[in-house]
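Sample intake — 23S ribosomal RNA methyltransferase Erm
Collected from: Microbacterium bandirmense
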Amino acid sequence: MPRSLHGGRHELGQNFLIHRPTLHRITELVRSTSGPILELGAGDGALTRPLSTLRRPLTAIDIDEHRVERLRGRLPHVRVERADALQHPLDAPVIVGNIPYHLTTPVLRRLLAAPGWQHAVLLTQWEVARKRVGVGGGTMMTAQSAPWFEFELCGRVSAEYFRPRPSVDGGLLSITRRGSPLVAYAQRRAYEHFVRGVFTGRGAGLTSVVARTARLGMPAAKRALGEAGIDPRSLPRDVTARQWADLWGRLR
C-alpha cells in the first residue's frame, strides 16, 4: 500500500488487531450499548466490519487516506472519513477503537473532556488499561475523571494478536459516563485542580497535603479525611472515587 501523506506505519503507530475472538469481544461490548458509533483508527476495517453488522449508524475514521479509500470501497454502507482522532469531534454516543499506543494518553484526555458520548470501548496498552481502573493504585487522571466516569478492565490482549506485533500486550478498557455524577459538572475544574494539588503536593502525610491544598488547618483536614473514610496514612493512589468525591464535598 502507498505511504500516507502523514507517514508510514511507524509514524502512524499502526498495529492491526487480527485476533477474531478479540474482535468479537469488542463487538459484543459495543452491542450492549445503544446509539450511533464512532470508530477511531479504522485501519483496514478488521473491527469496522463486525461493528457494521450491529445495524446502527457507524462512522469510521482513519488518518491514512489510502486505507480510507479502500475501506469506502469495501464497506459502502459505512460512513468512512479521513480524519485525525485528536481533532475529529467525539460526538457519537459510543466511541470505539484500537488506539495507537503513542496516542493513548492524548486520546484519553480528549475523550474524558468531551461532552455528549456515553460509552467508550478502547484497546490500549495493557498498563494504561490497568492504571485507568486502579489496579496497583489509581492515577491522577483517573482520580480527576472518576466522579463522572466508570472504568472497567475487560481483558488482556496478547501482543501476538497484532500485526505487526507490538512490544507490549494490549488491554480492553470500557468507560461509561455516570448517570448520576459524584461531583457536579459545574465544579469539575475546581475539583480537578484540588486532586492535582493532592497528587503533586508536598507534606508529611496525606493530612498535611490536604490541609495545604485546601488551605485548611490540620484539625479540619484530619476531620474531613476521617469523615470521608480515608486513612490518613494512605497515599493519593489508594483513595477511591467515592472517597475523593466525599472528601471534596466535605471540604467545600
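Post-analysis note: The beta strands are 16-17, 37-40, 58-62, 79-82, 94-98, 119-125, 149-157, 162-163, 170-177.
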